[in-house]
Amino acid sequence: MSHEPSGRVVKIEIDGRVVEARTGEFLLAVARRAGIDIPAICQHEAVDPAGNCRMCLVEITKASWDGWSRLVTACLYPTEQDLIVKTHSAPVIEARTVLCDLWLARCPDSAYVQKLAAEFGIEKTSYQPAAVPTDQCILCGLCIRVCEKLGPAAIYTVNRGGRKKVAGPFEGPPPDCIGCAACAEVCPTSCITVAERDGTRTIWDKEFQLLACTTCGRTLVTIEEARYFGRKGGLGESYYQLCDRCKRLQTAQQATKVAGLPLTVGGLGEASGRPFRSPGSLTTSR
Amino acid sequence: MSATAAAPAIPEPDLAPVDAILAGYPQTETSLVQVLQDVNRTFNYLPCHALEKVAASLGVPLARVFSVATFYKAFSIKPRGKVIIRICTGTACHIRGAPLLVDEFVRHLGIRAGETTPDMGFTLETVNCVGACAMAPVVIAGPRHHGGLSPADVPDVIQGKSDDD
Ligand code: SF4
Ligand code: SF4
Ligand code: FES
Ligand code: FES
Questions:
Q1: Which of A197, A219, A243, B20 is the most exposed place for a label (fewest CB within 10 A)?
Q2: Number of domains in chain A
Q3: Do A219 and A272 share a domain, yes or no?
Q4: Residue A225: domain span
Q5: pTM (2 decimals)?
Q6: What residues does ligand 3 touch, defined as CB less than 6 Å away?
Q7: Hey, which of A1, A27, A41 would you mutate to test ligand 3's pocket, going by the most ligand atoms within 8 Å of its Cβ?
Q8: What is the CA radius of gyration of chain A?
Q9: What's the complex ipTM?
Q10: What pLDDT digit, counting tens, does each position of B135-147 carry?
Q11: Which of A152, A153, A159 comes nearest B70 by C-beta?
């Protein structure tokens, strides 16, 4: 994260616990370090916080505030001296409940939203549900920020108000999309569809050819992605020729040769059995 | 897709003015809205290829340019006619007969609100309060503001006659 708090070390109170933090450090990060849970949907360690989803609302006050308090987004609120933070007070829970209620009206078919709403005791939205639920997107903007951070910046919101949605230019297949699927990987509601078959990947209505490992034939990344990150990272043509498993095997073989030891394939079995993750994707968990 | 599919099939205009517009601003993202305003004023809408030119020239991702182009009500990504007729349907104008004016314009131009005549002569739009409630009902045709209109005035407005002609 590019936000580097440089402030003084101060003490603040979160849910009755005294916690040390630097001034300027965002409350969500401070709470997480202290093992205090605050739900946060549009926050991802790969990108700067944006305050879009509002799920991380917490109540803040100070002894000097005369009983006055307010709700702020923890992911974006900088630590200051003497803050008293409540992460699960009645106003906080109420705000999060309303959010879930609204999301359920917008995306009644989303399993993610249904589950979230159920956690706040909502089975059915109290609002008018969307007549034609168009998609399961809660407009958290995470996909957009991740794509921008990676470089392509292929998708943004289009329109506004009730017609706002995430799309490529002219609402067609985004010309700058390299098919890396990082957006789909981070989407909380899993509403960005990625279809892979016969060596192709389709995402955002755009079809990509997948590169295959030259040794084992497993598909790796899209050709566009290899080209893009190859150029950006100066990786060279050969970087995407082997999958991670074959690369490890190759390295091990070379190392064994150098050490003059016999290669036991069994020793690599465990590592090579791990599911494949595309090297260009952001696979860090939220 | 739907946005482009809905547009009348007219050829993309000559984009030379876009270069001239771009030349007048610093080539940075901060110029984006002003450039789009000028382009929109020149063509009455934002042609696809103009957006591509602007994106490339200012170094802004095309997706973001499109995002801005679809965010502001002042911009249109659909081709619009030479004269844009905006009928105010705000509260004051509504009470003073705006719906009758809308019907009358629809009848005369043969298009509905939001549409453009096939000859690209007129685009009909309804807008909310334009801030001239004392003159209600208000219609803005091209550069001209018309107040206190009745349906009988509609042909004159279409022919471009102002109140005092
Ligand atoms: S697949 Fe990759 S490049 Fe395409 S929109 Fe998603 S994150 Fe951006
Ligand atoms: S597609 Fe997913 S990540 Fe993107 S804005 Fe919608 S919910 Fe958020
Ligand atoms: S995580 Fe803070 S607003 Fe989404
Ligand atoms: S309502 Fe029409 S100008 Fe105010």
A1: A197
A2: 3
A3: no
A4: 142-241
A5: 0.82
A6: A 40-43, 49, 51-56, 73, 75
A7: A41
A8: 23
A9: 0.80
A10: 999 999 998 999 9
A11: A159
